[in-house]
Design a protein that fits this description.
Blueprint lengths: L2 H13 L3 H8 L7 E4 L2 E4 L2 H8 L3 H12 L3 E4 L2 E4 L5 H15 L10 E6 L2 E6 L5 E3 L20 E5 L2 E2 L5 E5 L2 E5 L7 E10 L2 E6 L3
Parallel strand pairs: 11-13
Antiparallel strand pairs: 1-2, 2-4, 3-4, 5-6, 6-7, 8-12, 9-10, 10-11, 12-13
Helix pairs in contact: 4-5
Length: 207
């Protein structure tokens, strides 16, 4: 069989696919178009992303804000996060949303809808008819919303101790933060200047 015959057979097979499968083949979510303005992270095509998934933008933004641990909201067709968020983190959370709230676990189709049965959120597939409860990952209270410190961002913290070199020591989640020129017990706003693993360094920001 030559290449031309193979292509003709392939096209013929695609034409005979059910409409739901054909639509699934064409399903594509735009990559987030991210820009930074000062300390804000902006997804310029946020509504395009929500519309491609046929999901309520308010539901998607609420998920992203919770998972990224940042304030923000929708402004026009854009999503604005009030801190600097790596593009990779935004993409990862969008993919997590797709697998949790969009794709059918039986046939993989994106042609689904969310319905609520009492307190349970159900994902119903319009392609194969499968139904499943939406399982949202539970976060233990000890690790709930542990912040991810980012260089350049400002955080409020309490100096809990003084290190061997005289720097103040604070703790935020898994991080130990060293802040020169501070005293034990003081509450300060600190700009993170450098991070090495779970050790961070910062300077006091004057109001």
């Amino acid at each position: 069989m030559d290449d031309d015959e193979y292509r003709k057979l392939l096209e013929s097979a695609k034409e005979q696919l059910p409409e739901e499968i054909a639509k699934h083949e064409r399903f594509e979510v735009p990559e987030p178009d991210v820009m930074f303005e000062g300390k804000n992270t902006i997804v310029r095509n946020f509504l395009d992303i929500a519309e491609s998934m046929n999901r309520d933008p308010a539901h998607l933004i609420a998920f992203l804000l919770r998972e990224l641990g940042t304030p923000g909201g929708i402004e026009g067709r854009r999503a604005v996060f009030r801190s600097k968020i790596p593009v990779s983190s935004i993409s990862e959370r969008i993919n997590e949303y797709i697998h949790t709230y969009l794709l059918c676990s039986e046939c993989g189709s994106p042609d689904t809808r969310l319905v609520r049965d009492g307190r349970i959120l159900i994902l119903e597939c319009e392609a194969c008819g499968a139904k499943r409860p939406v399982h949202v990952k539970k976060v233990s209270s000890s690790s709930a919303r542990e912040p991810t410190l980012l260089p350049g961002n400002v955080y409020s913290m309490t100096i809990e101790d003084i290190g061997g070199r005289g720097d103040g020591v604070a703790r935020i989640g898994k991080y130990i933060v060293y802040v020169p020129g501070t005293t034990k017990g003081s509450q300060v706003r600190v700009k993170i200047t450098n991070i090495r693993g779970t050790i961070a360094y910062g300077v006091v920001v004057m109001e």
